[in-house]
Amino acid sequence: MITHDIVHDLRAMAANSEQFTKNEVVEMLQEAADAIEADRKVLEKVRAGIMDALGHLEKIPGQRIRQSWNGNGGSQKS
């Protein structure tokens, strides 16, 4: 995930751009781009997991889902 340090450094560069060399700015932008790409990949995996879980939920009859949510573990109460 994009760290607080990268965000802080980018904001500092934006506020005081004359204090940084072009190479420093390019390096920080490359780090930010790498972090964004890593975040995108993680979020893609999370989304795929959620979609997979939803697919499994659709296969479970509604009564069983409600019982599981009520803490019955899917068993019928008498």
TrEMBL record:
Its recorded name reads: Uncharacterized protein
Q: Which organism is it from?
A: Borborobacter arsenicus
Instruction: Say which domain of life the source belongs to.
Output: Bacteria
